[in-house]
Amino acid sequence: MSLKDLRGWIEKLHEENEIKEITCEVDWNLEIAEIETKLREKKEGGPALLFTNIKDYHNTWGKKFFIGSLGSYSKIALALGLPKNTPPLEIMKIQRERTKNIIRPIEVSNGPVKDNIIKGNDINLFQFPVLKTHERDGGRYISTFNGVVTKDPETGWVNVGLYRGMVNEDGKSIGVLLAMATHWGMMAAKYASMKKPMEVAFVFGGDPLLPYVACSPYMPHVCEYDILGGLRGEPVELVKCETVDLHVPAHAEIVVEGTISLDPKDFKVEGPFGEYTGFYGGRKSPKPQVKVTCITFRNDPILQGSVEGPPYDEGALIHSITASSFALDFLEKNCIIPGVLDAWVPPVTHGNDIFVKIKKQYQGQAKQIAAALWGAALWWFKNVFVVDEDIDIHDYDQLLWAFSWRVWDYDEDLSVFRGCHGGVLDPSTPPELKDPAKMGGSGRWNRLCIDATKDWRLEPVEEWGGERFPPLNRYLPTPEKIKKRWKEYGID
Q1: Could you tell me the domains of the chain?
Q2: Which of 343, 366, 416, 459 minimizes the number of CB atoms within 10 Å of its CB?
Q3: Over the chain, what HEC string results?
């Protein structure tokens, strides 16, 4: 399946009855966000929504807003070219297989995103229906579910991330939360030392998997265009930007080009913003600004975005697939830790918590796994929970059961790794411990490893088959005899 653009994706969603078009007039100020939030109350979310009649946006460049693109596992499966009923674990398996074979992008001379080119005094981001999504937000945020393209000035590594961006009142600049521990933050630090602005391009629309790879935890120096090509099975077609030395998808809906000054004298107030944590984050304070130098867009463009927050926003569902896959890939490829069987990042935690299932080989293996994961990620995996192979890590009852009956020596089984780098948006971290000026663009965390595996300090018991722990009397498969006779029993 080839899905180069948002319009083909919207057609596919119509075919699968996974989208609703809202034609009555709605307000960009909170109303669209509140509609989407209501649909998200269910774990699997609701349909994607295309708004075509937005207050104040009847005679503007952009009149449409699309939201909920990947707001359910069924839509993620469809975007990957899979049947919509593909379960999350199968999606993970295919994700891991495809990303082993990256496909580099190709440059083309032109594309639909060049239908309209706006520069200079004509630039006005409010010509597009930028939403206000939370009551206390510092402004209207345009960058919520898209790709943000930057390039390393030394190596040429191109990163496509997803970072929030607030349109300033002039409509010609974007305030951003630029944490130096992120991939674009690493690049920004180099530009700052060179006393040069960093070029950036915000990409809206295009391949539905662009935000999917942009918000996923890939290692530094990996280009998300390459990953996207691997997931899609064909190269991403890119065109050169008009005013910056960057390349963007030719079939995008809207591209905003600009430069970021890293000089504090050029900072302006940004924030707060209702974040994925379910709390407001990134307090109102001076932050870097993107000076917009050009906007290119398709005819009748569709602006795409998301509403951040629990329980299951699009990013949460994506992270459950990609962060789980990342953890398994990293432990298998980059470490010498044997016996790792499965990993799962629950969507509601947005990558803060991870459960790992192992076939235990030695005492202390859980701590080794936790240390490896903490060293691999920026601020993922705050809490690592490790269990034996007889526990289903996708069943919360079994996880709690393992915690209750296999964790007893709290000094040994609960390991706190203090003073780590951590998330700048974690509401439980005191403000002074996530101040970018003090902490180098990172927050400060104490991380936790819970070893809920069987304790190998116990002596083997002969009547238990030489095992150190009593055998299970639950979580066993239903005998075939019982399955065959079930209707005969007359139990509904």
Answers
A1: 6-305 (2.30.110.10), 335-464 (3.40.1670.10)
A2: 459
A3: CCCCCHHHHHHHHHHCCCEEEECCCECCECHHHHHHHHHCCCCCCCCEEEECCECCCCCCCCCEEEECCCCCHHHHHHHCCCCCCCCHHHHHHHHHHHCCCCCCCEECCCCHHHCEEEEHHHCCHHHCCCEECCCCCCCEEEECCCEEEEECCCCCCEEEECCCEEECCCCCEEEECCCCCCHHHHHHHHHHHCCCCEEEEEEECCCCCHHHHHCCCCCCCCCHHHHHHHHHCCCCEEEECCCCCCEEECCCCEEEEEEECCCHHHCEEECCEECCCCCEECCCEEECEEEEEEEEECCCCEEEECCCCCCCCHHHHHHHHHHHHHHHHHHHHCCCCCCEEEEECCHHHCCCEEEEEECCCCCCHHHHHHHHHHHHCCCCCCEEEEEECCCCCCCHHHHHHHHHHHCCCHHHHEEEEEEEEECCCCCCCCHHHCCHHHHCCCEEEEEEEEEECCCCCCCCEHHHCCECCCCCCCCCCCCHHHHHHHHHHCCC
